[in-house]
Amino acid sequence: MQRAKVFSLTTAALALSVSGRAAAQTPALALDRLQPAPAGDPMLAVESPATAPSRVTLAALGSYAKAPLALRRTSTDDRSRVVDYQLVAHLGASLSLARRITVDVDAPAVASQGGATRSVGASRVAAPDGATLGDVRAGARFTLLSPEGGAPGVALSQRVFFPTGREGGYASAGHVRYAPAIVVGADAGGWLWSLSLGRTFRGAASTSARVSGSSLDASAGAAVRVGPVQAGAEAYASTVSDASTDALSRSTTNAEVLGVVRWSGRGLFVTGAAGPGVGKGIGTPAFRAVLAVGGSLELGGSSRERHTTGDARGDARAAEPASTRAAVAPEGAPAAAAPVDTDGDGVLDADDACPSVVGEASATPARNGCPRDTDADGVVDARDACPTAPGVPSDDPAKHGCPPDTDGDGVIDPEDACPREKGAKTGDPKTHGCPTSVRVEGQQIVIMQQVQFETGKDVIKEESFGLLSQVAGVLVEHPDIVRLAVDGHTDDVGSEKNNLALSQRRAVSVLRWLVDHKVDARRLEARGFGPRRPLADNKTPEGRAKNRRVEFQIRLRDARGEAAWRDGPVE
Predict the structure, then answer these.
(1) How many Cα atoms within 13 Å fall on the side-chain side of residue 58?
(2) Cα first-last separation, the chain
(3) How many CB atoms lie within 10 A of CB 264?
(4) Can you name the CATH fold of 3-295?
(5) What's the distance, CA 252 to chain centroid?
(6) Residue 207 in contact with residue 180, Cβ under 8 Å?
(7) pTM higher than the cut 0.85
(8) Least confident of 76-80, 218-222, 280-284, 381-385
């Protein structure tokens, strides 16, 4: 059995210590698993693919982790804890440029930690010994595709961790680490989501390599916004995966889930979060609580300054909405900073839900400053071919934002009684958009008229060709109908033997007609039932006319379509 597969928490503890020495050893290990997103990102621990307008953001974050290092993961045995708690402070800064590049730095420090020295056999793992600096992280992110109008964006991220912390203080890995990742996500104003996948490469071997070596990393989050408040959930996880360790083993995998609430306004933000650790990997806490505060400063001023003087300037300012007026400093006092409106749409960035996209004022905070989307379908009116009817995105500009019309008959799916068969507009909800003569109902292709034959013969009359053309069209539109039975029926006039033969010949004639009109023969079979399955009483002319008929029974459907067409029996 591979050694990674027999890896236990006790073995992990031994890997963290130096076996065979009596003195307690403290490993080179960056224990804290929370890596904050760049300051100014909308989420706490999950990066965003978006790059804000040019601005500088500063943030401070405090994180309390309970029992992040224990030799045995149990809910009652406190004696197994090496690190009973860890309080970590982060100072972060970011700079965004040209709506494409974000660079950031994060400086962590263990403000306080406590625990006790524990023994495993002849080895001892030392308790933490107080406050210490952590490994400074520098990062850069390039936005390949900006998330706009609810559409996803994509970015590439690279982080580098420098061994600035003191080894042995449970705050430093003791060597340089590199963490590339790809980030995808979307921001639709009222809701947002983000996902990051990457890998951390650790550039030097250490005694803790088997439990904190190179790893696969993932994080994901989603949130909703109501005014200045954002609430959601975030999760992040990693698993050690290198030449000596299998991914997803119990002692080398850790994950955490956080509920996150954020308030932002006037360039400031406050974030609170809490949640449990999941798994038994090194650094996984039983519980974590986080508080963060920060602020942003836009670079550059408003692009719409007015140059009016005297009463005319006062009158113009009085006519402006209060939220767009710049403060006027008293005479002799220093001038107040000009308000920022990056996209020049008349809604200041502090109140603009879409500060980099030209929009319009709205009473709804989540839509204020965003392009108009009358039908709230995620496609802005300027690109929406049907701006007053909720629809779906489409590559065809003439259909972009319009309700779907699957069969292309001009009747939208929500109003089409037969959304997969081309039909006519009737005004009747039961038949609107349905074929007039042929339609699919359950396990049958129903025809509203009868196939007409010459009396006593299997020759199809020309007047039925149009009807059979519609049947062939239905089969073209439904490749999932992989076997259709053409059933012939007669009345009971004459001998049963002759009627059985006639019904079979008529079914074969219809099958041949369909094959001659481009229906694959593998999808068809002919059956004759003569007078054995009457629909009406054969004692009346009307009843006998109803019984002389052809029916189309669907015997087999398969989503694979043509790949499932085959000769031979279907059962």
Answers:
(1) 1
(2) 47
(3) 19
(4) Porin (2.40.160)
(5) 28
(6) no
(7) no
(8) 76-80
